From TrEMBL:
Chief place of localization: membrane
A Pfam family this chain is assigned to: DUF716
Residue ranges of the TM segments: 12-31, 51-72, 92-110, 122-140, 152-173, 185-205, 217-244
Name of the protein in its database record: Transmembrane protein 45B
One CC-aspect GO term: membrane
Localization, UniProt: Membrane
Key words, A-Z: Membrane, Transmembrane, Transmembrane helix
Topology in the lipid bilayer: Multi-pass membrane protein
Similarity field: Belongs to the TMEM45 family.
Length: 280
């Protein structure tokens, strides 16, 4: 949708997904680093997280498609019009196509956890494909648009294509925390930049931006770098918070377990002494 809401919806989706991936991969990395060598059994909790993530992607994609298609001025599932302009709201159709591929990625994620017949890495491959399709559509989305409009969308392509490349690397390099954090951070960057696009092109209040002013282009470019820094900071803070929280609770759990074992051993010792005294 060519309005602020049309950018806030995907922005919210990508922000939530980015934070979710960051938390999930920190938990998985903590679990991997604290397991004995050779142990490969994944706890059921992690599978439930994958199901939730896949379901969220499918649901968000469905909602996005419905909004793009059936908003008041949307195409209402009509692609071709016989009267006048033959194409109906192609921008909405492009956005719907973008959501479609993220829905496919969600289905692949669920399927890869449900069935062992699905090859490992299909979930990463499909999310990489979804990001590539998003970037591919946006690349041709901004032709013949005002200078600032085209530029601010071209900056988005940097986050999108880098995310696609990162996910593709994960197909071949599994369980690499750097790549996993990179993908989460790029989703956060993409989400925040969608909001920035909405505020620049469709400000909810205040003056409209001059879309041909070169200084605005310079500022937006600098602003994108700030978004990168903020995304990096958010990933770092989230990683640290989750890691130390889990570590603290894990230490408490081990202390309780050790205490219970010590109490149990003391009870057994006392019981043995009493039995010996009774025998005497």
């Amino acid at each position: 949708m060519a309005n602020f809401g049309g950018h806030a919806i995907p922005g919210s989706f990508f922000l939530l997904l980015g934070f979710w991936l960051t938390v999930k991969y920190v938990l998985q990395h903590y679990w991997r680093t604290n397991q004995p060598k050779g142990r490969q059994i994944t706890p059921p909790f992690f599978k439930k997280m994958e199901y939730f993530e896949g379901g969220f992607q499918i649901f968000a994609a469905f909602v996005g498609i419905m909004v793009e298609q059936f908003v008041v001025d949307g195409p209402h599932a009509h692609l071709f019009n016989k009267d006048g302009n033959p194409w109906v709201k192609l921008m909405n159709w492009q956005h719907s196509t973008m959501y479609l591929f993220f829905g496919i990625a969600g289905i692949a994620l669920v399927a890869s956890n449900v069935s062992k017949l699905v090859p490992a890495g299909v979930d990463r491959l499909t999310i990489s494909l979804a990001l590539f399709v998003e970037g591919f559509l946006f690349y041709f989305h901004v032709h013949n648009r005002p200078h600032l409009d085209a530029h601010i969308h071209s900056l988005l392509l940097a986050a999108v294509f880098c995310g696609s490349a990162s996910a593709m690397l994960e197909v071949f390099i599994r369980d690499n925390i750097i790549l996993e954090m990179l993908r989460g951070g790029l989703f956060i960057l993409q989400g925040s930049w969608f909001y920035q696009i909405g505020f620049v092109l469709y400000p909810p209040s205040g003056k409209q931006w001059d879309l041909e002013e070169h200084s605005n282009v310079m500022f937006v470019t600098m602003c994108f770098c700030w978004h990168i820094a903020v995304a990096l900071l958010l990933v770092t803070c989230t990683f640290s918070l989750v890691w130390f929280t889990v570590k603290r609770f894990s230490a408490r759990g081990r202390d309780i377990e050790i205490g219970m074992r010590n109490t149990s051993s003391k009870s057994n010792s006392q019981k043995a002494l009493l039995e010996e005294s009774d025998e005497e």
